[in-house]
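Provenance and format

Records in this collection were gathered into a single text stream. Each protein contributes a sequence line and a token line. The two records reproduced below are adjacent in the stream.
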Amino acid sequence: MAENYHLELNRLSWDLTPETIKTRTEELIEKAKAVYDIVGALSKDEVTLENTLKALADNDVDYSVARNVLDFPQHVSPDKDIREASTEADKKLSDFDVEMSMRQDVYDNLVVLQAKVNTDEMEAESKRYLEKLIKLGKRNGLHLPKDIQDQMKALKKRESDISIDFNKNLNEENTTLEMTESDLAGMPEDFIKRLEKNAEGRYKVSLKYPDYFPIMRKCRNQETRKRMEFAFNSRCISENTKILEELVEIRQKKADLLGYPTHAAFILELRMAKTPEAVVQFLRDLTEKLRPLQKEELEVMLQFKKEECEKYKLENDNKINLWDMRYYMTMVEERKYAVDQNKLKEYFPMEVVTKGLLDIYQELLGLKFQEIPNPPVWDKDVTMFSVADTATGEFMGHFYLDLYPREGKFGHAACFGLQPSCLYGDGKRQPAVAAMVANFTKPTDEKPSLLTHDEVETFFHEFGHVMHDICGKPKLVFFSGTRVERDFVEAPSQMLENWCWEKEPLRRMSSHYKDNTPLPDDMIEKLVKARNANAGVFNLRQILLGTFDQTIHTSAKADTRSIYAKLSDEILGISATPGTNMCASFGHLADGYDAQYYGYLWSEVFCMDMFYSRFKKEGIMNPKVGMDYRKCILQPGGSTDAIDMLKNFLGREPTQEAFLISKGLQEK
């Protein structure tokens, strides 16, 4: 039966040993270098589209798949030795990537090619690819003197190595705190029951999401929340603070060598926002609009804190601390909107949510998913599916779901594109393969895995990225799947989060784990009404992170701890806890979001416009709109500018109106 799942078209394998990872890394480097050597050795007269541009594009295909096989295990393998070997492979390959990106001979031949061919007659995607490669060459300093290039190369290698270390430190972080029953006052029984105990009978609590967030939301014991928050925002503090501050210096030095005023100016040149000034203005305007909401919300939280302290005879310092924030945000949802998060999650068992979510995506995008029995995967908890187009039966790819925490595993939720969809060889399409990695609560003997509504939203969001990878149909790897402008990449998946706030989808992916009853209408109504609960505080926290990111990346040096503390007071109105540095665990700043974290809010403007203008008006499960979305937004990958994709889908220029309505900042 295996042929039905097209496993032979999946070029990935997960049965590697540390030794084979090492050997294959060396072989891959040798093979790819040979291609660059051939292209670089061509004389000006010999350069053609076939032997230069196509040779590089074909190498991209083989290299990207082989590289992912070697560097993905550092995030997911249950074997520490394999994770170590994979991290080392990533460092070697990243160093090699830097070497190849700095090949003067290859760059020169690309410039020759552009002058030689009539680019107006070139196929649009190839022309775009050639322009991008030359632009990237200039951004690497290949038009500058050799001594500057050597400095650039050294800086890029150092930046790459320490970025990998930053995230490795976070993946391997495994602090646990010991708690008594009274430390966990207010926590539901099922949470306490699933915790391990030590020899003295104390509960072991980790800083992983399934332990940390429930405690911050529901634990009545202030001291426990304080301990947890302090430990959580002190993860990897000594080693990663140093790394982040060195990254800031390296990035500014690169900008200086290339003649850009700041690293942010360098990065944003290729983004939708274009300039740091545009980003600062966007964040500032939004801050002003949200400020009245935030003040109101903090006053309500302070009132709740006063009542709570009087009721339980606790000391009240008359301010909302960081360890209070999520606790009182939850209380606002429960009291003002009567949303009981613990009751709500009883309606979201993992199996029901997964089935509902997969059904919704299939129906909306015209796809058919099939689960693969006994799949070739890296851990027993991982499931694997094949994807086909419903109308044509065309096989489109595979995806993996790796949903529960394990030691050493990547600690957040993310989509990893592993095999890009593109044309290769004689024009056949290579199907896409992507993995969704998350850290939801594991099932126990007594209870299935129950998701909070936040986690359902996270599932929808990350799976949206998976679909972007699977549905992308560019010709070239360079433009595959999610390789769009970084400040647009979140929009397609954020757009799909809206389904978690609509009645029909909510009913389809919920049923009580004990008696299979659907989520009652009154609970759905309360949940939907509560969508903008805490909108001021929640969105100002996003603005804080985006502003921090822009601030350090418009500086030559940064004392991250004091900058973050100052901005936290000014923007969020809640102080960073002394002795902590949240930035030491801000993984995005070391894995490609540097000077781009604003993109989450920036792209939300577009996602809300798409949702309100098309799906809300024409039907959220309307297959025609779903197909338009797939064709206009997901299918092009990065082969078209994001603004043009949006105009094609919306039939007009995008606007901010729907975004402001969604935040409760404008009347419908």
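Adjacent record:
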Amino acid sequence: MVPPPTTEMLVVFAVTVAALLLFLTELVSPDVTALGVLVSLVVLEPWTEVDANTAILGFASSATITIMAMYMLSEGVQRTGIVDQLGAFLRRVTHGDEKRVLAATVGTTGPLAGIVNNTPVVAVFIPMITDLAEDSHLSPSKLLLPLSYAAMLGGTLTLIGTATNIVASDLASDLIEGRSGIGMFELTPLGIVVLIVGSAYLLTVAPRLIPERIEAVLDITDTYEVSDYLAQVRVRETSSLAGQRLDDAFRELGRDLDALQLIRDDEVFITPKTDREILPGDVLTLRANLQEINRFAEEYDLRQLPREEVTGDSLSAHWIRGELVEVVLPPSSGFDGETLRELSFRERFDATVMAIRRGSSVFHEQLADKTLEAGDTLLLYCRSEAVSLLEADGDMVITRSAGEDGQRELPELSVKTPIAISIMLWVVLAAAFTRLPIVITALAGVVAMVVTDCLDTSDAYDAVSWDVIFLLAGILPLSTALQETEAAQYLADLVVSSAATTVPVLGLVALFYLLTSLLANVITPVASVALMIPVAVGTAQQLPGTVDPFSFVLACTFAGSTAFMTPIGYQTNLMVYGPGGYKFTDYLRVGGPLQLLLLVVTTLGIGVLWPPVG
């Protein structure tokens, strides 16, 4: 019989439940929720036993610093252009064959994500995969979800594959006597099995389950269904627009209508930033619904050109120097919760937003006042020179660009490529085969990247997903509170008392895998691992006989990388949500069976490689 919980335990449970509810509802961002948890624990110190000094230790933990350093190292490798070149190589070898394209996507992404942080890998691969889909006349929906899942599977290969692995290593060192954490390649044997089984599923079963949410089309305007929102009008002699500067005239209209081009004889001028004066005979390319265009043409005495069809080719032909660009807002985007009007987006980036895709929904009207969300994809039209502004902004990731030749220009390999790759390999091997901890080798690698000019300091800081860092630093004190108040031990006692006599030890390992993976789908994997590992270790230590708690740690660790069932569970899932046009249920349909499959495979693998009972 488990005694009733103490007041201290109840207070910590209340903070935990409040945090879970905020994670689920996203009333505030997860990193803000985590910081709120940190503050609450200190305010409630008499019951939580977490003082101010203990609370801020999360910012100095080896896991937090290692993850920060790995973001920087991944950026250094990415800037060499080697990942982009790999995409070009895959385009050549797949020859447009559907099975080859899918195999290349899965077979490349998984192993690469074991060494380089999987989030930037997916960010770089999305445009490459989209191009491969176009070349092969495939729907990008068929490839982008496997891309995200393969990156997640690859994260199980090494200690540095995902942030959850590093957090688990830190917790294992704190909670299990005599263990210094998880070795660099300690996860690799089971990680290889997980990657092989998961890849086989993605290559055989998943294609039958993934719907074609976006049709296999070549024109990007068809992908966003904007053809009915594009038209051309000619300026008559009697039009009141004649004689006005283009940008000034349309800024003062107050309509849900944008001018994309001004065409004069054989010249095309791209808005918004042009000081050209509108003259009689000019042709204007407009973005608006047809009713708005009709009213506009009638009011300003413009002749509509019904026979003229505006397509992606006509907007981005090489002699125009205009580009259609698709961008996705990553989970860390500062645009989340803002509107285009509030951001002054058109003026700031010299680009016009033509449509916004959110999952399978596409919005064409009242775009300026549409509240943006992480995972949204935006179709933009801009001058070729403005693309660099978009690429330099960390709040957007370019996933598709149709310019002069319809393809993104690939960066050439940097002369620093061998240096950057050598530094990354040294970090991995030094952590694996010397007594230096991963946090020191990772920091040494960052120093080497900066000193050798593979990465400058501003780029290094920009590469870090600071929301993840603050999330981790804020949630770790809650893990401490669960331990210090023995709340984790209380939960472990409940598990043991209710299941120890009826469920075998390996079954309990599977139970913690299941609970952690389900939790990771609705909050973040980092938070789920930080909350579940103390309870899992406590359960193992309470079981009769000799039970290895490390087996339970591994179950939670691998489960943290299998948040396949929702777009919000893992940030790479959210990154492909818009470009793939997916619905929320697509993740459940495709990811649910995969998650159950890996539950069985991982549990059996742990039983063979790290038997919980000696």
